[in-house]
Design goal:
The protein is of the alpha/beta class and 154 residues long. 42% of the residues lie in helices and 14% in strands.
Amino acid sequence: MIKVLFVCLGNICRSPMAEAVLRDKINKQGLEQQITVDSAGTGDWHIGHPPHEGTRKMLDTHVISYEGMAARQVLSEDFSAFDYIICMDESNLTNLRKLEGGIEAVIIQFMDLLPEETLREVPDPYFTGNFEEVYELMDAGCDVLLSKIVKEKL
Protein backbone atom coordinates (compact mmCIF):
# COMPACT_ATOMS: atom_id res chain seq x y z
CA MET A 1 0.00 0.00 0.00
CA ILE A 2 1.40 3.39 -1.03
CA LYS A 3 0.62 6.10 1.54
CA VAL A 4 0.40 9.84 0.81
CA LEU A 5 0.15 12.58 3.43
CA PHE A 6 -0.72 16.18 2.53
CA VAL A 7 0.39 18.84 5.03
CA CYS A 8 -0.62 22.46 5.51
CA LEU A 9 -0.81 24.78 8.49
CA GLY A 10 -4.14 24.00 10.17
CA ASN A 11 -5.38 20.99 8.18
CA ILE A 12 -8.75 22.54 7.39
CA CYS A 13 -8.27 24.14 3.94
CA ARG A 14 -5.47 23.10 1.59
CA SER A 15 -4.39 19.67 2.79
CA PRO A 16 -7.90 18.25 3.29
CA MET A 17 -8.86 19.58 -0.14
CA ALA A 18 -5.83 17.82 -1.63
CA GLU A 19 -6.65 14.65 0.31
CA ALA A 20 -10.23 14.59 -0.98
CA VAL A 21 -9.23 15.41 -4.57
CA LEU A 22 -6.51 12.75 -4.73
CA ARG A 23 -8.74 10.17 -3.05
CA ASP A 24 -11.43 10.88 -5.66
CA LYS A 25 -8.93 10.43 -8.50
CA ILE A 26 -7.62 7.21 -6.93
CA ASN A 27 -11.15 5.82 -6.64
CA LYS A 28 -12.02 6.76 -10.23
CA GLN A 29 -8.95 4.85 -11.42
CA GLY A 30 -9.74 1.84 -9.21
CA LEU A 31 -6.50 2.21 -7.23
CA GLU A 32 -8.01 2.44 -3.73
CA GLN A 33 -6.54 -0.96 -2.79
CA GLN A 34 -3.05 0.28 -3.71
CA ILE A 35 -2.91 3.92 -2.58
CA THR A 36 -4.21 5.58 0.58
CA VAL A 37 -4.32 9.30 1.40
CA ASP A 38 -4.42 11.36 4.59
CA SER A 39 -3.78 14.96 5.61
CA ALA A 40 -2.44 16.78 8.65
CA GLY A 41 -1.46 20.22 9.86
CA THR A 42 1.71 21.52 11.42
CA GLY A 43 -0.40 23.51 13.92
CA ASP A 44 -2.83 22.19 16.52
CA TRP A 45 -5.58 24.86 16.41
CA HIS A 46 -8.17 22.82 14.52
CA ILE A 47 -7.60 19.24 15.72
CA GLY A 48 -10.83 17.25 15.37
CA HIS A 49 -12.58 19.88 13.24
CA PRO A 50 -14.02 19.13 9.79
CA PRO A 51 -12.62 20.86 6.70
CA HIS A 52 -13.26 24.62 6.43
CA GLU A 53 -16.66 25.62 5.05
CA GLY A 54 -15.00 27.04 1.92
CA THR A 55 -13.21 23.74 1.29
CA ARG A 56 -16.44 21.79 1.83
CA LYS A 57 -18.36 24.05 -0.57
CA MET A 58 -15.69 23.68 -3.26
CA LEU A 59 -15.63 19.90 -2.87
CA ASP A 60 -19.44 19.80 -2.94
CA THR A 61 -19.39 21.82 -6.17
CA HIS A 62 -17.16 19.18 -7.75
CA VAL A 63 -19.04 16.27 -6.13
CA ILE A 64 -16.02 15.09 -4.15
CA SER A 65 -16.55 13.45 -0.75
CA TYR A 66 -14.89 14.68 2.44
CA GLU A 67 -16.94 12.39 4.66
CA GLY A 68 -15.25 11.47 7.92
CA MET A 69 -12.38 13.92 7.51
CA ALA A 70 -11.17 15.71 10.66
CA ALA A 71 -8.07 17.81 11.24
CA ARG A 72 -5.08 16.28 12.97
CA GLN A 73 -1.54 17.38 13.65
CA VAL A 74 1.53 15.89 11.97
CA LEU A 75 3.34 13.32 14.10
CA SER A 76 6.99 12.31 13.93
CA GLU A 77 5.76 8.76 13.18
CA ASP A 78 4.26 10.04 9.92
CA PHE A 79 7.76 10.17 8.40
CA SER A 80 8.03 6.39 8.54
CA ALA A 81 4.32 5.66 8.03
CA PHE A 82 3.98 7.51 4.70
CA ASP A 83 5.79 7.11 1.38
CA TYR A 84 5.12 10.67 0.23
CA ILE A 85 4.60 13.79 2.34
CA ILE A 86 3.40 16.73 0.27
CA CYS A 87 3.57 20.16 1.90
CA MET A 88 1.77 23.27 0.72
CA ASP A 89 4.36 25.97 1.41
CA GLU A 90 7.86 26.74 2.65
CA SER A 91 6.65 27.34 6.21
CA ASN A 92 5.12 23.85 6.30
CA LEU A 93 8.38 22.39 4.98
CA THR A 94 10.38 24.20 7.67
CA ASN A 95 8.02 22.92 10.37
CA LEU A 96 8.22 19.37 8.98
CA ARG A 97 12.01 19.46 9.07
CA LYS A 98 11.86 20.36 12.77
CA LEU A 99 9.84 17.17 13.38
CA GLU A 100 11.51 14.64 11.18
CA GLY A 101 13.28 11.83 12.88
CA GLY A 102 14.28 8.75 10.93
CA ILE A 103 12.91 10.07 7.68
CA GLU A 104 11.77 7.51 5.15
CA ALA A 105 9.12 9.47 3.28
CA VAL A 106 9.79 11.49 0.15
CA ILE A 107 8.96 15.11 0.98
CA ILE A 108 7.67 17.22 -1.92
CA GLN A 109 6.48 20.80 -2.05
CA PHE A 110 3.12 20.70 -3.82
CA MET A 111 3.96 23.41 -6.34
CA ASP A 112 7.03 21.45 -7.49
CA LEU A 113 4.46 19.16 -9.13
CA LEU A 114 3.40 22.13 -11.28
CA PRO A 115 6.67 23.72 -12.47
CA GLU A 116 4.86 25.68 -15.20
CA GLU A 117 2.99 27.70 -12.57
CA THR A 118 4.45 31.01 -11.42
CA LEU A 119 3.28 30.40 -7.84
CA ARG A 120 5.82 28.51 -5.73
CA GLU A 121 3.50 28.02 -2.75
CA VAL A 122 -0.16 27.06 -2.57
CA PRO A 123 -1.99 30.20 -1.38
CA ASP A 124 -3.84 29.68 1.90
CA PRO A 125 -7.56 30.30 1.25
CA TYR A 126 -8.11 30.66 4.99
CA PHE A 127 -6.54 34.09 4.47
CA THR A 128 -7.18 34.78 0.76
CA GLY A 129 -10.73 33.38 0.55
CA ASN A 130 -9.93 32.04 -2.94
CA PHE A 131 -10.91 28.38 -2.64
CA GLU A 132 -11.47 28.09 -6.42
CA GLU A 133 -7.83 28.92 -7.15
CA VAL A 134 -6.68 26.32 -4.62
CA TYR A 135 -9.05 23.71 -6.04
CA GLU A 136 -7.66 24.27 -9.55
CA LEU A 137 -4.11 23.81 -8.24
CA MET A 138 -5.11 20.68 -6.27
CA ASP A 139 -6.84 19.19 -9.30
CA ALA A 140 -3.87 19.72 -11.61
CA GLY A 141 -1.21 18.81 -9.04
CA CYS A 142 -2.99 15.64 -7.92
CA ASP A 143 -3.09 14.45 -11.54
CA VAL A 144 0.69 14.87 -11.73
CA LEU A 145 1.22 13.26 -8.32
CA LEU A 146 -0.94 10.25 -9.13
CA SER A 147 0.93 9.70 -12.41
CA LYS A 148 4.23 9.98 -10.50
CA ILE A 149 3.11 7.41 -7.92
CA VAL A 150 1.89 4.98 -10.55
CA LYS A 151 5.19 5.26 -12.48
CA GLU A 152 7.45 5.05 -9.43
CA LYS A 153 5.65 2.62 -7.13
CA LEU A 154 3.00 0.54 -8.94
